[in-house]
Design a protein that fits this description.
329 residues, alpha+beta, Chondroitinase Ac, Chain A, domain 3, eight-stranded antiparallel β-sheet, 6 helices, 16 strands, globular, binds 2-acetamido-2-deoxy-beta-D-glucopyranose
């Protein structure tokens, strides 16, 4: 860590000391802003994806292709279920995988970039759904289920990136098993799909408990809770499981982090510009200094013997004098 007392305020950078101070402060601010930016970049949901990929792969002890293995999750994630299956991508494309828990994967799945074998990882976030995927204004009627696809080349790999998949024919369908019911006169339940960036998109249900998708991500059935969340609930309606206070504070803390990241970035940018100016000024001042010193000492030209007298000679002669006879030979 840089001792901040050794960093005086950035002013005019005409001396090497000031120049160093500029560098010093710039580095301090850059470190601070990049730290915040890195924090803002990894959402809890993405950190969870990475953790669950690790636990899913640990379930593969001498794995058979096409067999679904369920993983063991750590005690601090009790309530989350994870399963995984390893498949050849050619077989996945030709045959699909019809019974991957709630997911029915049809034929025609294209995996990019191409790998020989893939691992499909299933998440059921259970009572953690609204913690990792807060959705203000909506109530979850089902847990959030995830389907993510990874390269199977190294089953001890950690921190893998998801592959990209597209259902080129019919969509992947998700048949939720325990969907809570809502009063018929209330708002209609909808499907929500979170892509890997956590951006929600809403779709209509295919059937009372079925959603469909052409891509991987996380899925759930939700209902607009703006009418049922406030006030006492009539008997028979579901209790909104979203602790709205937690959701709001989480959302705003995320926004706050991003805001700090952006401000930090702008500060870093301004300081970079300042550094460039400082550098230019420092170089110019050095040049002036050298020129002044030379002026004081008097321009000493190299003297050379020309014939019988001494004459000044410029250092960079344009054409070297040659004796003509050298050309001829
Ligand atoms: C759960 O514990 C593991 C270590 O066992 C830790 O890496 C992880 O961050 C914890 N997760 C949560 C959600 O607290
Ligand atoms: C989910 O339930 C388990 C126990 O079944 C509990 O340990 C955990 O804290 C719960 N998670 C949340 C987010 O409430
Ligand atoms: C929920 O429904 C209400 C009333 O129909 C509407 O005003 C509100 O925008 C909806 N909320 C969301 C998040 O779509
Ligand atoms: C597999 O991944 C682990 C963990 O990242 C790494 O240590 C190991 O070298 C990898 N093995 C191969 C064959 O790439």
């Amino acid at each position: 860590m840089i001792d901040s007392s050794s960093c005086p305020a950035p002013g005019c950078c005409s001396t090497p000391m000031d120049f160093l101070a500029c560098l010093c402060i710039l580095q301090l601010l850059y470190l601070a802003s990049s730290g915040v930016a890195a924090q803002a970049a990894t959402s809890p949901a993405r950190a969870l994806d990475a953790m669950l990929q690790d636990y899913a792969y640990r379930a593969f002890v001498r794995p058979h292709t096409g067999i679904v293995y369920s993983a063991t999750v750590p005690p601090n994630l009790t309530g989350v279920a994870v399963s995984a299956v390893r498949l050849r991508s050619g077989s996945l494309r030709r045959k699909g995988f019809a019974h991957f828990l709630e997911f029915a994967v049809p034929t025609g799945i294209v995996v990019q970039p191409y790998v020989e074998r893939v691992v499909l990882v299933y998440h059921n976030l259970g009572n953690w759904s609204h913690y990792y995927y807060p959705l203000p204004g909506y109530t979850y009627l089902s847990p959030v289920l995830g389907l993510l696809v990874y390269d199977a080349a190294n089953l001890s790999a950690v921190g893998l990136q998801e592959l990209s998949i597209v259902a080129s024919g019919s969509p992947i369908s998700i048949s939720f098993s325990n969907v809570r019911s809502v009063p018929a006169d209330g708002p209609a339940p909808r499907c929500v799909w979170f892509d890997l960036d956590g951006v929600p998109q809403f779709r209509d249900l295919e059937a009372s408990n079925v959603c469909s998708t052409f891509r991987q991500g996380h899925f759930a059935i939700v209902v607009n809770s703006s009418e049922i969340a406030p006030g006492p609930l009539p008997p028979g309606t579901i209790t909104p499981p979203i602790p709205t206070q937690g959701v709001h504070s989480k959302g705003s803390s995320k926004g706050w982090k991003i805001a700090v990241g952006v401000v930090g970035g702008v500060i870093a940018l301004v300081l970079s510009a300042l550094l460039v100016v400082c550098l230019a000024r420092y170089k110019r001042d050095r040049k002036l200094e050298v020129m002044e010193r030379n002026a004081e000492a008097g321009e000493t030209l190299r003297m050379a013997q020309v014939g019988r007298s001494q004459a000044p000679v410029a250092l960079g002669t344009r054409t070297q004098p040659v004796i003509e006879s050298e050309y001829v030979a």
